[in-house]
Amino acid sequence: MIKNFISNIYHNTRIGFAIIQPFKNVYEYIRYATVSDKSFIKKEFKKNLGYPPDLENPKTFNEKLQWLKLNDRTPLHTICADKFKVRDYVKEKIGEEYLIPLVFQTKHPRDIIPENLPDFPVIIKTNHDSSGGIIVRDKTKVNWIATQNTLAKFLNINYYYRYKEWQYKNIDRCIVVEKLLMDKTGAIPFDYKMHYFNGKLAFTQVDIDRQTNHKRNLYDAHWNLMHVTWIYDTGEEIQKPKHYDRMIKLGEIFAKDFCYLRVDFYHVNDKIYFGELTFHAESGCGTFTPEHYDLDLGNKLQLHKTKES
Fold first, then answer.
1. Maximum Cα–Cα distance for the chain, whole Å?
2. If you average pLDDT over every residue of the chain, what do you get?
3. Torsions phi, psi for 260 (to 5 deg)
4. What highest taxon heads this organism's lineage (predicted)?
5. What is the pTM of this model?
6. CB of 260 closer than 8 Å to CB of 306
């Protein structure tokens, strides 16, 4: 009962949040920031995958993502991980027409009020994390204090310390509000996560029903379903997007600058939209079944450091 009371005042009142959040910040710092990157990575990897990583001679896909965490760090990584600044990078690389419309941006959670938002559905998120964001379909039915507290909590988290993914360390944190992409039925469209190894598409990940019964399909570069599960069970077959070949080419434009890159696209109402860029899928701790896929994919990824421009 006491735990529920504290949780309620923390999430739904300003004074509760103001009192409790500083203690959470101290706890987060002690838990994550005081541990060396390599020690933290070894511990988390063993906990999630059941075997210690070989960081000197990595072989599996997950081991190689951990190697990249420690050894591949450039200012371009930070720009690409920033969901606000990456918009300029996307505009320069492939054009503004692929960007999801931006409707509002601020550094202050209390600016997230109905008066500053449009009447059409939006998604609210911070520019430095990997959460799905807060979907608002009807702004008259939102608890705005709880929403502001949630965003303030997100802004207080440095995801570098939590996952040792360096690209998040120095992002100038802010809140972005984008138009919510929906298909003709009002449903959230599929998110096509395209994994590139050494500049070429290796496989595409499609997550299905993420809010209800999460399934995940993996397809090879020719859109053949791969008989493997990656954390989540396989769902029903998904039809290849109409502009799949175009999506591959667009992704290659970004991927040529990196050893490994995941490029996310949406394909909705016959149009392609850019989602985000990711450097360490599942933070390099995603389990494959059968397990040999981890090694099979690792054999295809040749490691090197990104050249600084």
1. 56
2. 93
3. -130, 140
4. Bacteria
5. 0.91
6. no
Kindly state whether residue 103 falls inside one of the protein's structural domains: yes
Residue 294 included in any domain? no
| Chain segment 117-174, per-residue pLDDT in tens | 999 999 999 999 877 799 999 999 999 999 999 999 999 999 999 899 999 999 999 9
Write down the pLDDT at residue 20: 73
Q: Closest by alpha carbon to 136, among 158, 154, 156, 151?
A: 151
DSSP the chain: -HHHHHHHHHHH-HHHHHHHHHHHHHHHIIIIITS-HHHHHHHHHHHHHSS---SSS--SHHHHHHHHHHH---HHHHHHH-TTTHHHHHHHHT-GGGSPPEEEEES-GGG-SGGGS-SS-EEEEETT--S--EEES-GGG--HHHHHHHHHHHHT--HHHHH--GGGTT----EEEEEPP--TTSPPPPEEEEEEETTEEEEEEEEE-TTSS-EEEEEETT-PBPS-EESB---S--PPPTTHHHHHHHHHHHHTT-SEEEEEEEEETTEEEEEEEESSGGGG-PPEESTHHHHHHHHH----PPPP-
Residue pair 226/205 in contact (Cβ under 8 Å)? The answer is: no
Which residues constitute the domain of residue 139? 1-34+99-182
CA 252 → CA 120, 199, 235, distances in Å?
33, 6, 27
Within a domain: 83: no
Q: Rounded to 10 degrees, what is the CA torsion of 205, 207, 208, 210?
A: 180
Number of domains in the chain: 1
263 Cα distance to chain centroid: 10
